[in-house]
Input
Amino acid sequence: MSTPVIELTGVTKVYQMGETEVYALRGVDLSVSAGEMIAVMGSSGSGKSTLMNILGCLDVPTAGSYMLDGIRVNGMTRNERADLRNRKLGFVFQGFNLLPRTTAVANVELPLLYDRTGRFTSTRALAVEALTRVGLGARLEHQPSELSGGQQQRVAIARALVTQPTLLLADEPTGNLDSKTSIEVMALFQELNEQGITVIVVTHEPDIAQYAHRVVDVRDGRILRDHAVAAPRRAADDVRTIDTDADGLRATALQEVV
Ligand SMILES: Nc1ncnc2c1ncn2[C@@H]1O[C@H](COP(=O)(O)OP(=O)(O)OP(=O)(O)O)[C@@H](O)[C@H]1O
Ligand SMILES: [Mg+2]
Output
């Protein structure tokens, strides 16, 4: 078997808040293979973001070990983790986290300009390519305020993709979007997953989780349940169904008017 992309063993995270200790994770074991698409679910405060921050090398476990693509993350310096992050990971957040008053293409180009490996030369061309891949080739010069919420999230996904990550981590990427736009974003994640990127999505919504191949339920800092989804829904099909239904409704409304 190939090396897992993620291997967490006995991961604990304790936050020190003055005198009190907050146990955010209490011994998490998780193994993720290349090519998986996983939904992480759980109520507020269960530890999902803490888990994602550790997976994303933004934070380190208090105890337990983390291997990312065969590389031991424990014991790395902050700079080493930042380099690992740049090489392997893409992040998508609920609030898009785009720079305001900055064009879509400049937002997407940014991680390439910060990259210290010197891997990327024609940075603007790569940013244009990533935006085209998420269907925004015609919105390159738009600033975030000139884009819809779904389009802003697409820019954020392009920014996550542009460094060619192995793993895409998304913490409630559809939390600020309406249901149709949410399904469109999930269709994009499914497409990227089919192209070989491993995807982990945190969500509160069971409707969104059903697009993953595997669902991990977190409760009180532990993995309560970890199960495969027998037949994940196809988000692209659901988007088409919504469009067809909307067309049908419009046609009916028109008939009533005429
Ligand atoms: N930086 C921090 N310092 C102290 N405690 C924290 C910190 N971050 C999170 N916690 C605590 O750890 C626990 C888990 O928080 P976490 O943000 O991982 O939850 P979550 O599952 O992402 O919740 P939500 O669905 O609301 O985003 C919570 O009890 C929270 O209060
Ligand atoms: Mg959270």
The chain has eight helices and ten strands. The longest strand covers residues 20-32. Strands lie at 6-17, 20-32, 37-41, 63-68, 71-72, 89-93, 167-171, 198-202, 214-219, 222-228.
